[in-house]
Task: inverse folding
C-alpha cells in the first residue's frame, strides 16, 4: 500500500471501465441466459446452474489469512483480489470468493470494504451499499423471527416461552449503539409483552452464519428450523420450527442464498457472497459461493476474517466441514507496521523504521505460520507493502521467514494490481501441484472442553482454560441437548493470540476464561465467548457518512 | 371477484408464462441497453431514460379510487390492472402505475398485494417479497438517520437536541407490535443516551413519502435535508441537514428512486414503485413512476390507497401538485358487499342478498362520486363483481348510478382478465377526449385551519372541526416556522367518511377533532391526526407466514 499521491479507491474504481457482467460470466462458461442480472455489472448464479455443474471436479483453493492485525487491517482483501488478478495474468483461470461488506461500518468508520487501490472488486459503490439485497433479506428474516416470537408471547404464549430467557435478538445493518440494550413491548396490553431486548448488527446474526454454511435451500430451511431462540419456563430450548415459520423464513432468503457474481478491476470473475463476523461467527464467505467458484475455475482465492487464529482457524475447522474440500495452500498476509506493533511499537510510531521491533514482533507471524502448517498445508507469507516500509525492514522480514524455509513474497497489488502479485502467484504455483494431507485441529466427537483446550493450547499458545460458572452450566445444557459434537466458534479479540487485546507478539503461559457458551444450532457451532464481544458497533464522532454524497446523475462520492 | 372454484392467485401467477422484461420494455420504446435488469422479469428505469423522455407530451391519466372499503378491500388494484389490460386489448397503448406492497402485511394478514385472479402484476412472488429492494433501502435510510441522531446525543449533543422531543422514529418493514413503544440507550454511558422511541412500519416513514414525491435525486436530497426530526431544548426544529447527512441518506436511496418495470398477466407494462400508507402519508405510487409512465404510453391507469376520501383526495390535492398533471377521468370502484355494509348489514352477512341495504348504503358511493366530480373530473363507477352478488343487487346498483347520469360498468377482471374490463374501458374512452377543468379543493396559501375545514365539510360531510390543545399549539408552531402553505395529509380511519370507523354510509353533522398536527417538511405536507392511527400493525394469532414455504428449487407457496 504505497501512499504516495495515489488516487482514492473510489476514484480508481470509477475510472475503470467495467465489462458487462454477461461477459464476465462467459469467462467461466456461463451464458447470458443462465445468470440473473442485477443491473449491468452484478448477477446472481441461480440454483439451476449450481445443480448443473455440481458433479464437476474442483479447482484448487488458496486461503488468504493474516497475522493479528492493527485496527486498520492488513489488506487481506486487497491481496486476495490482487493475487487472483496475478494468476489470471500468468495464465491460470482464477476466481475470487469474498465476503460482502456490512453497511454499518461503511457508513461509520471504513467508508468501503471491497479491496483497495488497483486491487478492488467492482462496482465498489454497489458492493459497499445495498449490493443485491442479501444483507437486507437477512435483516428481514432475522427480525421476522423476532416478530413471530413476540407475537407468540402476545397470543397467550402457547410455547411457554420464558420472556427472560429469549436469546434471539433483533438486527439492523447499521452501527447503532443506542439499540444494544432496549426494552420493548411497552405501552399496555395491546402493544406486546414487555421484556428486555437488543439489536445486533446484521452480520452478527445467526441467520448470516446459516446462509453462509447452507449447501441448498433445503439445508437452509433445516438449519433455520433448528435455530434456538429461547427457553421455556422449564428450561427446554425453543426453536424457529416451534414457531412454525421455518418455511416462511427460508422463503425470505431464497434469493439471498444465490452467490453474487461481480468482477475485479482487471476483469477477474469474483463471487462476493455472505459476510458473517469473524468473532461471534465464522468469518468466511458462503460455502455455496466457494463451492460454485471451485466448479467454475481452475483456482479460487478466498479469504477469512481477522487473523489466522480467528478466521483462518474457523475456515479450516468449521467451513471446510461443510465445503467438502480443503485449501491447497495458505497465504499469510503480514505488514511491516503490524509486526513492529507486535514488537512493542506504539500505534502512532509505526511509520518509523525499527528493525529491532520487527524482529521481536516476528514471533506473531511465526506462530501463525506454524499453526497453519499444523493443518498439513503449505504456507506462503505475503508482505503487503506500505510506503513507510524501509528496505532494511523488508529485507529483515524476508531473511527471518526464509530461515524457516517458508516462501515469502513482496506484494504490491494495491499500487500495481495483478502485476504486483505475480511473484506471490509464482511462489504458490508449485505448491498447488503438491499433495496435501489435511488434518483438523480436533475431532467433532471430542467434548466441548477438549476442543476448546486444543484451540487455546495448540493455536493460541495459552496454558490453561477455565470456565465461568455460567459457562459450566451452559456446558451441561449442551450435553443434555446432545449438541456436544459441534465445532467451536471462538469469540475473542482479533488483536492478540490471547483474550487480552494488548498482549502483542506471541504470548505464552496465559490463561483463558470462557465466559459463555452459546449454542448456534442453526449455524451448527458452539460460540465460546472469551470476553466482551462487540456485536453492535457504535458510530464515531465524525462518521464517514458526513463526506458521502450523490449527484443528480447518481454519481457517488465519499466512499473511500 | 367470482369465488367459484378458481385457482389461487399464486397458482394463476405461476402458471403464467411471463415475457422477458426486455420485451416489455420494447413495448414502451425502451431498448435492452436502456433498462437495468433485476433478474429476467424486473427492471429499473434509470435517470438517463427519464431525462431523455422528459420533454415528450403526456399520455392520458385515469385514477382508480373507491368507496369506503370493508376490511378486506374492494379490489382497486385488481380493477386497475384489469382495466389496463382491457385498454390494451382494445388498442390503446396503456401502462399501469401501482404501489409496491409492504412485506409486513404480506407476512401477517394479506398474503399478497399485487392484484388478484387474472388481473395481477408479475412476478407476484418477487413483488410481494423483497422486489428490487426499494423498501429495504428506505428502512436503512430511515434508521441511519436515527443512528446519526442518537450518535449526536452520545457525542456531546452539539445540536442541543431535547431527547424528550425527538419525533423521528425507527422503522422495519414488518408487523411487529412489540416495537411500538420501546426505551433505547440503556446499559450505561457507552451504550447511548436513554430515551423513549418506537418503530413504525417502513411504509409509514416520511422517507417513503419523500421518495414518492421527489422528482429527481437533487429534489430527493433537498427534501431529506428539510425533514424535521426533533426539537432543541429551546423548541427550535432540528432537521436531517443539521446532522450533516443529507447527501449520505440520498446516496442510500439513489437506486430506490428509479421506477420498477414489471408486467401484468397479459403483458401490459407496469411501473410498480413506492408504497406510502394512505393514512399517515398520501398513499400513491411515486411521482417519478407516474410521470415516466405518462411519457412512455398513451394512457396510464393508476390507483390511490383506501377510499376516495383518503387516497383519492390526497392524489388530487397532494400528488398532482408534484406530478404537474391531473387525471383525465376517475374510476370509482364499488362492491355490492361494501355497499350493503354501508347500508347496515353485519360483516358476517354480506353474502346474503339485501337490495334494501344496498339502496341505503348507496349514499356512500354517491358522496364519493360527488366529491370526485367536484374536482372537475368525469367519474365512472366500476362494480367489482363477486360470486355472491345477485342480479337484483347489481341491477339496483346500476339503476341508482345511472339515475345520477353517471356511467357504470360491471367489472369481471378478477375472473376474466382484461376481457372482463372492456366494457369499463369503452365507457371511459369517450370521456378521455373531453377537456377537463381541474380545480383543487383548497389553495395552498389558505391557513391550515381553513384547509382542514374544507376537507371536513366539503369532502367528509362533517359540520365542525375542533382542535385539541396540542393541535392548537402545533398550529402556532407551524405558523412560526412558516410551514402554513403546505397541503394537508389527513390521517383518519379508512372505513368511514368520519373519524369513527363505525359510522357507515354518508354520515352528516358529525364533528371532527384534530388531535395532532405533524409537520412532514420533507414530504411537504402537514399530517392532521384525527384519531389513533396505526403506524405499526400487529400480527394475528395465525399469521399468513405459517402457510408459506419454498421448495429446494426455489418455488414459493402460501402467498395467496
Result:
Amino acid at each position: 500500500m504505497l501512499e504516495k499521491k495515489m488516487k482514492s479507491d473510489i476514484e480508481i474504481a470509477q475510472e475503470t471501465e467495467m465489462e458487462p457482467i454477461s461477459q464476465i460470466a462467459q469467462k467461466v462458461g456461463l451464458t447470458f441466459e443462465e445468470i440473473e442480472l442485477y443491473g449491468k455489472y452484478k448477477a446472481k448464479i441461480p440454483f439451476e446452474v449450481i445443480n448443473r455443474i455440481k458433479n464437476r471436479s474442483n479447482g484448487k483453493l488458496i486461503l488468504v489469512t493474516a497475522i493479528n492485525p492493527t485496527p486498520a487491517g492488513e489488506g487481506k482483501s486487497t491481496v486476495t483480489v490482487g493475487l487472483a488478478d496475478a494468476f489470471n495474468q500468468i495464465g491460470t483461470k482464477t476466481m475470487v470468493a469474498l465476503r460482502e461488506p456490512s453497511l454499518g461500518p461503511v457508513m461509520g468508520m471504513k467508508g468501503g470494504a471491497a479491496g483497495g487501490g488497483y486491487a478492488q472488486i467492482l462496482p465498489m459503490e454497489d458492493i459497499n451499499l445495498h449490493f443485491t439485497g442479501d444483507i437486507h433479506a437477512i435483516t428481514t428474516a432475522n427480525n421476522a423471527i423476532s416478530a413471530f416470537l413476540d407475537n407468540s408471547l402476545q397470543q397467550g404464549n402457547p410455547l411457554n416461552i420464558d420472556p427472560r430467557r429469549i436469546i434471539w435478538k433483533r438486527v439492523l445493518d447499521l452501527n447503532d449503539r443506542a439499540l444494544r440494550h432496549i426494552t420493548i413491548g411497552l405501552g399496555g396490553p395491546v402493544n406486546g409483552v414487555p421484556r428486555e431486548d437488543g439489536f445486533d448488527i446484521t452480520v452478527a446474526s445467526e441467520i448470516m452464519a446459516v446462509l453462509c454454511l447452507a449447501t441448498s435451500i433445503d439445508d437452509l430451511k433445516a438449519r433455520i428450523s433448528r435455530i434456538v431462540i429461547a427457553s421455556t419456563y422449564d428450561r427446554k430450548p425453543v426453536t424457529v420450527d416451534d414457531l412454525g415459520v421455518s418455511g416462511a423464513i427460508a422463503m425470505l432468503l431464497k434469493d439471498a442464498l444465490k452467490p453474487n457474481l461481480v468482477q475485479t478491476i482487471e476483469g477477474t470473475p469474483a463471487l462476493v457472497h455472505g459476510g458473517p463476523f469473524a468473532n461471534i461467527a465464522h468469518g468466511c464467505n458462503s460455502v455455496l459461493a466457494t463451492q460454485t467458484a471451485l466448479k467454475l475455475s481452475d483456482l479460487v482465492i478466498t479469504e477469512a476474517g481477522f487473523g489466522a487464529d480467528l478466521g483462518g482457524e474457523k475456515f479450516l475447522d468449521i467451513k471446510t466441514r461443510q465445503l467438502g474440500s480443503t485449501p491447497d495452500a495458505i497465504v499469510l498476509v503480514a505488514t511491516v507496521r503490524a509486526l513492529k506493533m507486535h514488537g512493542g511499537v506504539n500505534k502512532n510510531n509505526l511509520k518509523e523504521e525499527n528493525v529491532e521491533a520487527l524482529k521481536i514482533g516476528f514471533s506473531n507471524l511465526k506462530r501463525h505460520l506454524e499453526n497453519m502448517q499444523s493443518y498439513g498445508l503449505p504456507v506462503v507469507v505475503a508482505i503487503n507493502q506500505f510506503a513507510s516500509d524501509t528496505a532494511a525492514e523488508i529485507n529483515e522480514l524476508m531473511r527471518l521467514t526464509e530461515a524457516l524455509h517458508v516462501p515469502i513474497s513482496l506484494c504490491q497489488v494495491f499500487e500495481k494490481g495483478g502485476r504486483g502479485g505475480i511473484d506471490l502467484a509464482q511462489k504458490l504455483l508449485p505448491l498447488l501441484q503438491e499433495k496435501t494431507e489435511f488434518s483438523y485441529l480436533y475431532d467433532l466427537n471430542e467434548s466441548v472442553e477438549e476442543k476448546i483446550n486444543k484451540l487455546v493450547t495448540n493455536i493460541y499458545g495459552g496454558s490453561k482454560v477455565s470456565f465461568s460458572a455460567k459457562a459450566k452450566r451452559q456446558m451441561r445444557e449442551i450435553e443434555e441437548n446432545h449438541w456436544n459434537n459441534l465445532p467451536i466458534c471462538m469469540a475473542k479479540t482479533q488483536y492478540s493470540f490471547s483474550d487480552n487485546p494488548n498482549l502483542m507478539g506471541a504470548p505464552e503461559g496465559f490463561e483463558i476464561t470462557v465466559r459463555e457458551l452459546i449454542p448456534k444450532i442453526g449455524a451448527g457451532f458452539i460460540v465460546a465467548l472469551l470476553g466482551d464481544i462487540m456485536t453492535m458497533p457504535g458510530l464515531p464522532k465524525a462518521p464517514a457518512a458526513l463526506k458521502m454524497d450523490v449527484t443528480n446523475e447518481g454519481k457517488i462520492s465519499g466512499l473511500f
User: Anything to note?
Assistant: DSSP finds 20 helices and 26 strands in chain B. Chain B touches chain A through 76 residues (CB under 8 Å). Residues 135-252 of chain B form a domain with the Domain 2, N(10)-formyltetrahydrofolate synthetase fold (CATH 3.30.1510.10). The radius of gyration of chain B is 23 Å.
